[in-house]
Every structure is written in structure tokens, then in C-alpha cells.
Amino acid sequence: MALAFPEAGKDFHPVRGIPAALLFAGLLFSSPFLGAETTSLISYPLDGDWQFRQVGQETWHPARVPGCVHLDLMAAGLIPDPFYRDNELRVQWVEKEAWEYRKEFKVTALVSGKAHVELVAQGLDTFALIFLNGQQIGETDNMFRTWRLDIKPFLRPGQNEIVIRFDSPVRRARDLESGLPYKLPGGSPHVRKAPYQFGWDWGPRLVTSGIWRPLSIEAWEGARLGELEITQEFIEKNKVLLKTRTEVLADRSQELAIKASIIGGKPFSHSESVDLKPGLNLNVKSFSIINPELWWPAGMGPQNLTTVRIDLYQKGRLIDSIVKRIGFRNLVLEQKEDEWGTSFRFVVNGVPFFAKGGNWIPADSFPPRITRRKTESLLRDCVAAHMNMLRVWGGGIYESPDFYDLCDELGLLVWQDFMFACSLVPGDAAFQENVRAEAEHIVETLRHRPSIALWCGNNECEEGWFHWGWKEKYPATVWDDYGKIFHEILPRTVERLDPGRSYWPSSPHSTQVGDPRSDRSGDMHYWGIWHGREPFSEYRKRFHRFFSEFGFQSFPLMDTVETFTLPQDRNIASPVMEQHQKHPEGNPLILLYMLDHYRLPKDFESLLWVSQVLQAEGMKTAVEHFRSQMPRVMGALYWQINDCWPVASWSGTDYSGRWKALHHYAKRFFNPVLVAPIEDEKDLRIYCVSDLDRPFDAELHLGVYTYEGTAVQQGKTPLRVDPRTSRLVVSKPLEELRSGLPPEETYLVCDLKKGDTTMSSNVFHFSPLKRVDLPKPDIRCEVLTRDGRQVVRLHTSKLAKNVYLSAPGIPGRFSDNFFDLLPDRPGEVEFISDQTAAAEGLRAALKIISLRDTY
Ligand code: BMA
């Protein structure tokens, strides 16, 4: 448990902000070794092996940092896995206890002898007392802040001991609440801790504690770098004024050199000597960049990234560095008067675009175990489904550097909420000060990133005030307290520290005072479907300017359900399945809607499966309508992308990372080119929607068929598809399209073709499928190996609805699933796997079903 600091001359000097891979590859610079007289900043991690125990008990157990108490208790065999069966109930005691973490480490005189030695804690969850060698050195009360503590007076050369004691967050919350004459809504309104851990309508209650982000010691003397602000101003179309504002902390008057380098594109650097005064110094540099290589969101162009690096030199010797990666892009949230009210659309590099994506929640109830690999796989799945924007929802966490690095690299814009959700806030000065410090830290940490599109105050706090009865229930001073945080502290922080980005007070919010649900301006959470029990067709009557939430639940598929159940649990009303359904009316609502659309599934597994198709069809109805209404509607972010544990929820990918039907559908309904047949009372309106930046000539092919396979009518229309538009191409009475046949006997196929290439296809049913006597499809398949890839070729002579392929026991997934296979139109699906699956193995394991097999 002891950790030695590097001896002089034996280790690298870690440079803040540089990915380790670059450092060691020596791409940026070769780091100086620590010499005996070094004045370089030394940063040394205190992560890794620690010990922990319950306060009041003797025995210490091994712990990992970063981590949290539930993960450590699980690793020590002291609690069962809370995700398994109904174990969540058995671990509730953990939140009521206090926990202590400790580590012994050795420092050399090189470290302890520096003029300044600081402990830098990037995440302590939440109420912590920090002791060094038995003396208290700090106290914390916000898991989202970084704490920098002076430990110089307490550190000894040689052996040291750090102890961090976490008080029970729920006990502290209760103490804080008792100071108010009323109880504020929300699980944890007084505590600056991830709200979802207190339980959500898709999340377990697992209120954890611990050192959840890295912890290190920084030792320096003379000077070190502080914050670096990088701003970019597009002064002309192809000219950017880039400014760096670097904070330098000095402990005495001195002359140092600062070098600013721009790496990537056309490399450039500039050095100058600066006279520092004791305290905080600001160094400002400006660069004119002509014809910068622009950064674009996914689907609109490349994600060009540029590295900005600041080096601080003392007499020619590098003593500190900061590296940040930026992208040149001009992004604005445009709100202009128009015929429907006030627009709400994002414009990047002069190009307005439709925001396509979803809401992101933390990918685990225990964030320290979210790996970069998991984050990357989820984010790549979003890009694969043609998304360009995610909303980091205010009930979770400010995500990890990995998350934002990947969003920068993949072109996923981030609508960033501050962490407040479905709650109100206390009005005391200490709380407000805590929030101000948190916001400053978060804005300073993220503002250089091209992916950050918008700062948003909170999730649904304003909605709750005006629409959930809070306005009537609470004194008006509570709304003043709200205003202090969301209309003063947060917007002022953004304006001061990140003036180039917009701030939006709440999601949803509108410019109509007191009406966050306005359809004339702002964003909207449309929950008439699901919470309001309206039919899916109601989506088509909504014309809000930007839909930042709407959603529908489904169950995970059987493979995921098997990870947390025993065979006897596999009934949606069993105690274990109900433990993994957090919405009080979730199961009845799924069944209610299911029986509007589908026949009652024959067994548990079919029920899970049909719930996913139902959810996907609901979201398809919504998004196809929203996109057809471009430019009136300019965004569709569905609720929700992912899960934090295995559960019935609104997610499109489940906790195991498996794509539900929704994610496959999203890939189709967010496709840059979309043909959308939309029912409008007695008519069918067919829209062609394009997000492409060039026009193209196409043909719209329409065919009406009976389910038995007879063509009723076929035709085609030439058309020009203009860039970034939605165009109504066909509007015809439904009756006429069916040639008078009953709705349950026919369906329509739309294909938008450019030459021989099908740009988008869609199938429209004239009747709910429960009324249709779907024929049994005769799906034939062949497994081929093509260029080392496994491809399944499929054929049917009768419509096969929602064809689903699986290969139990073979790791991997199919490139498409839950798709319609049309008669005599062979389809191909690839099997994607890290391992090379033998064609015979795949053939033997392959299972193919369709909707017709579920009843
Ligand atoms: C939205 C979210 C969450 C919630 C979801 C489903 O409004 O902001 O609070 O999980 O609804 O009810």
C-alpha cells in the first residue's frame, strides 16, 4: 500500500491534458527528467490501491481508486451484485453509513521540499473530510467540483497517510432539509450529488460514496499554469481570431517565457518572455487563422481537430504545460421570428441543420466502472444511427473526459445540462456559492470543446413549477431561489467564462414567460404519448420548434434479462422483473399500447420482443413527422439513448450495449435521406426529407400490395430532392391508394431511388397489425463469406414483418435487425464480430423470426 514518488531522473514529468499515448509516443515533446534542482511541476497520481472500512468497524478491506463504496463492497464479497434479481433491496443500508478510505504513500524530499504541495481531487462523492497524517486538511460537499488543497504544512518526507472519511449523504441531506419549513421536490435537492443515484423512473436507488475521480499531488515552486481559455471569433467567413488567455500563478516576481503552439493543420508557435508579479497573472495571445480546417458535426463534414499547447519555461527549462484540443467551428443557436413564432435551430459554420439524436444518461449506476471502451461503443452506435446531437441530461453527471473527447472526435454535439433535474433548489447563500463554484469549474473544463453546443440550466424544473402543481404548493420565494440560480448565477457564469456559447435556462423552456410547453418557441418535452396515454398518432399533431424529449418504454431482450433473472423470474409481473421496472405504471402502459397495435404475444420472450417493436414504431411515428416538418421543427432528441443497469426503460440500447429495435429503427428514421409516408386523417402524405447539402434527381416508387402478394397498384414520380428540406411529394386519399380494398388486406411500399440506388424505403400499413392476418413468411437464408465477412442472404415470397436474426452463443451482432423483408426482394445482413465466426457455426446457430412468430 505504499507508493513511492519517482526518484530524481527516473520518471516522466506528467504534463496536464496530454493523452498518455501521445506523451509516451513522444509526439509532442520529450519530457525532461526530474533533476535534483528541477523547478518543474511534479504531478503524481494517488490512484490505485487503497483500503476502506465502514466507520465504527475495525477491519480494513482493499479498495480501488477511482471507485466507490458499492464497487469495493462487491469486490470484497461484502454485498451481492445490486443489479442481480432484487438485490437492490439488500444493499440499501450502505447509503446510511459513513465510509473511510486510506492510503499510505512515500514522498521524496524533492516533493515535500517544494514551496507548494497541493492535493488535487477531481471527484469526491460527496461529504468528505480529508486527513493527512492525522490532521484534517479539507472538507468537501459537492461531487462535481475539483478540490485543490494546500498540504505543504502537513506532508512529511518519507511515509505519509491520507484518510478520506465520507459521511452518509442521506443523513446529511436530512440535516440540510430540516432547516426549511417545506420539503423541496426531487430526491436530493440540497445535495450536489448525481440525482439519479437516489432512484429514477429507470434507475435503482444506489446512493454511493467514494473517491470517484482521479486524485493526485502536485508540487511546484516559482510558477505554475492555471486555467487556459481559448476563444475563437469568426471575423470573416474564412478568418478566425483565436485568443488564448492563460493564467499563470507565481509565488514571486520573475521573468519567465510562455510559448503557445498550435499543432495540427498548419503548425505554428510563438514565444515571449513575461514579467510575472506574485499571485495570478494573465497572459493573452491572439492568432489570426486564415482558412481554418473546420470542424463539423457527424454527417456534415470532417471533425478536424487542432491542438493548442501552452508551455511555461524558466531559463529555457520547461516547468509546466497545458494541452487542449479544439475545433474551428462557428455554432449558434438561432432564434428568429418566423411565420410559426420564433425559430429554435442550431446553425454550424453558417449551415442550419436538423438535430438528430437522443438523451444520454450515465452508462452505469456506478460511474467509476464506465470504461472508455463502453463509452466509445455507445457513442459509435449513435453515429452509426446518423445522430449528430446528444443531450447530457441534468439528472446524471458531468461526463468523463473520455466521453467529451469521443464526442469531439465523432462529431456528436452535446446539449449540456447543468446537473439539476425535476427538483427545486434551496435559497441559502452556501448552496448558491457551491453551485457557482461548480458551474465555474465545469464551464472552464469543457468550454474549449467543439462538441459542446449549449449550456442548459436544468431538466424540467421550470416544467415542474408551472405544470406539476409546485407553483401552487410552494411560497413565491422558492421561485425567487430558482431564479437566483437559473436566471442569474448560471447565465452570468456562462457569459463571463464562455461568452461564445448560448445558455438556455431549462429544458423545456420557451420565450413565452410561464409557458415552457409553448409550440411557438423554445424546446419541448412531449410526453402526451406514454405519460398522457395518448395514441402514437398524436405525435403528428405536434409542431413544437425542437423536441428535446419524447419517448416510450420497452423491455430489454431475453439475453439481457437472463443476466439478472432466474428462470422462475421470467414473467413481467414477477417481483424480480418488477424490481427492474421503475416506472409505477410502466408495465400496464406497455401492455395498453401493445394491445392497440399487436396481438397478445404468446410467451414471455415474445412479449419482450414485441415491446421493443412497439417502442420503435412509436419513435418512428414521432421522428418521421418531426423531420417532415423541417424547418418549422428543427430537432428530435428522443428519450433515451442508454441505460445505467438492466431495466425496462425508454432506452434504445440496453445496459449490455445490445441494440433494441429502436436503435435499428433510428438508423433508418435518422437516415440523411428519408421517405416518410404519414397518415393525415383520410389522406396519406408522402414526404421526401434530405439532410444532404446537394440536390439530387430521384424517382419515388410506390407500390400497393395485398399481404398475399398481389400488386394492387404501382407507379413512380420523378422529383428533385433539394438540400436540407422536407418536401411533400404525394398527397392521396387512403381509400384511393387501397383501390377500395379493406385496410387490413393491403400495405404500401415507398422507395426513393436515385438511379439504381435506393436512398430510403418505407412500408406503410393501412391498419393496425393486430387486425391483419399476416401470412407465415417462408424465409430462406444462405450464409456466405465475402471478403472475410459473414453475410446472411435472405429471401421471402410473403412479407416478413420485423425480421430478427440471432445467433445464440456466438458473440457479435447483425448489421441490421427488426427490418421488413419484402416478397422477392432479397436482403443481406452482415454479422459483425470481434472474433472470426466460422460460416458453419453461424449457420448452425442462426435463428430467424418475425412478427408472425410472436403469437
Ligand atoms: C423525462 C426525463 C426523466 C424521465 C423521463 C421518463 O422527462 O427528464 O426525468 O426519466 O422523462 O419519465
What does this molecule look like?
The protein is built from 17 helices and 48 strands. Strand 27, helix 5 (372-384) and strand 28 form a beta-alpha-beta unit. Helix 5 (372-384) runs parallel beside helix 6, helix 7 packs parallel to helix 10 and helix 14 runs parallel beside helix 15. Residues 1-37 have low confidence and may be disordered. The protein is globular. The protein is an alpha+beta fold and 855 residues long. Helix content is 20%, strand content 35%. Bound molecules: beta-D-mannopyranose.
Strand neighbour order, sheet with most strands: 3-2-4-10-7-8
Percent of residues in helical segments? 10-25%
Structural class designation: alpha+beta
Oligomer: single chain
What's the number of extended β-strand segments? 48
Average per-residue pLDDT, rounded, comes to: 94
